[in-house]
Automatic annotation (TrEMBL):
This is Prostaglandin reductase 1. Its EC number is 1.3.1.48, 1.3.1.74. Belongs to the NADP-dependent oxidoreductase L4BD family. It catalyses: 20-hydroxy-leukotriene B4 + NADP(+) = 12-oxo-20-hydroxy-leukotriene B4 + NADPH + H(+); 6-trans-leukotriene B4 + NADP(+) = 12-oxo-(5S)-hydroxy-(6E,8E,10E,14Z)-eicosatetraenoate + NADPH + H(+); pentan-2-one + NADP(+) = (E)-pent-3-en-2-one + NADPH + H(+); leukotriene B4 + NADP(+) = 12-oxo-leukotriene B4 + NADPH + H(+). GO terms for biological process: prostaglandin metabolic process. InterPro entries: ADH-like_C, ADH_N_2, ER, GroES-like_sf, MDR_fam, NAD(P)-bd_dom_sf, PTGR1. One of its GO terms (cellular component) is cytoplasm. It comes from the Eukaryota.
């Protein structure tokens, strides 16, 4: 049997190119004692892959998380038909001893996690609302923004995997939620499907003007997915003792490191408004990971949390899915169905 994988062939220069990857087709090795053969069902593409790529060695399989199914097992902990979520990278087939799997992001052991029965919810959600992005939204908002009912929350990248959940969890917690996204269709979705109180297309509406209209008394909580000029504008509209969760800075991921994005100074706002700003990587909450997933699943079952996925069909579409993140192509979580 043949399997396919994408090899990270060349470090990106600006916007990633298809030629930075090499598609390799090779024989899937036989399964030895203690090993399992996993077949990918869904592969995740995520913005972090772009900045993180600076640390990847060329010639290795491109990094990433996937949902895979056990198709052969010589390991007592995994049976044929089990579905797992694991950091196997951009590959269709993986043969390994699960006890020895290493997550290349932190070089720590990372056992493929057997998914429970999702009861009709698509397995792809293990890469989105019921996985890393869902927990990023849930823990990032609740732990760092310290939200209180009646407060004003602003989120950018608001129609994406993380942002759309941040805004809805904010609404569940009783906040007034304002979102920024990159198209009129996304703005409509934020208001009509996700119940945001206000939403704006940052490509056609000045951010400061938008906040003067939608939050004349200022912003209490800011969940920042974008960074740069937009973030400086939002920070300048914050209230005394506001809190900022720095989640991502996608606006600068394709920048030339020698010519980084410049944005208006934020220190005067930080000082005079006495703001609190904290960056995070969601893995800091690994010890309570399942709490976040259980909470988001509960919200879904109660009809309080909705989600979208942009599904690309076919292994060879991974590059298009990945690059689509930087063009605003996706609404909700971008995944590739294998
Ligand atoms: N700290 C952590 O642990 C984690 C951080 N993150 C970060 O969260 C952010 C959102 O991730 P995720 O939800 O998975 O991705 P998204 O699903 O939001 O996809 C990316 C979106 O970003 C927007 N975007 C792209 N380029 C720009 C730009 N130049 N300016 C403004 N918006 C832009 C686009 O939407 P639009 O049409 O609105 O422009 C695009 O659809 C990222 O910065 C990511 O790195 C994610 C997971 C964990
Ligand atoms: C400027 C880059 C910001 C990236 C933000 C982001 O999207 C993070 C996503 C994490 C991702 C982090 C990967 C490696 C972090 C290594 C930290 C370290 O110890 O150096 C991955 O863990 C999935 C998301 O949690």
């Amino acid at each position: 049997m043949k399997g396919k994988r994408f090899v990270f062939a060349k470090h990106f220069d600006g916007v990633p190119k298809k030629s930075d990857f090499e598609l390799v087709e090779e024989e899937v090795p036989p399964v030895k004692d203690g090993e399992v053969l996993f077949q990918a069902l869904f592969i995740s593409v995520d913005p972090y892959m772009r900045p993180y790529s600076a640390r990847i060695q060329t010639g290795t399989t491109m990094i990433g998380e996937q949902v895979a199914r056990v198709v052969e097992s010589k390991h007592p902990g995994y049976k044929v038909g089990d579905n797992v979520v694991a950091y196997f990278g951009w590959r269709t087939h993986t043969v390994l001893n699960p006890d020895k799997n290493i997550n290349p992001l932190d070089n720590k052991p990372s056992k493929p996690y057997i998914l429970p029965d999702f009861g009709g919810v698509s397995l792809s959600t293990a890469l989105g609302v019921l996985g890393m992005p869902g927990n990023t939204a849930y823990f990032g908002l609740t732990k760092l923004c310290e939200p209180k009912p009646g407060e004003v929350l602003v989120v950018n990248g608001a129609a994406g995997a993380v942002g759309s959940l941040v805004g809805q969890i904010g609404k569940i917690l009783g906040l007034r939620v304002i979102g920024f996204a990159g198209s009129d269709d996304k703005v409509k979705l934020l208001k009509e499907k996700y119940n945001f109180d206000a939403a704006f297309n940052y490509k056609t509406k000045d951010v400061t003007e938008a906040l003067k209209e939608a939050a004349p008394e200022g912003v209490d909580c800011f969940f920042d997915n974008v960074g740069g000029v937009m973030s400086s504008a939002i920070i300048s509209c914050m209230k005394l003792y506001g809190r900022i969760a720095v989640c991502g800075s996608i606006s600068a991921y394709n920048d030339d490191p020698k010519k980084p994005t410049l944005a208006p100074i934020i220190q005067p706002s930080m000082i005079f408004k006495q703001l609190k700003m904290e960056g995070f990587v969601v893995s800091r909450w690994l010890n309570i990971w399942q709490e976040g997933i259980a909470q988001n699943l509960q919200y879904i079952k109660e009809g309080k949390l909705k989600y979208e996925e942009t599904v690309y069909e076919g292994f060879e579409k991974i590059f298009d899915a990945f690059i689509g993140l930087f063009k605003g192509e996706n609404t909700g979580k971008a995944v590739v169905k294998i």
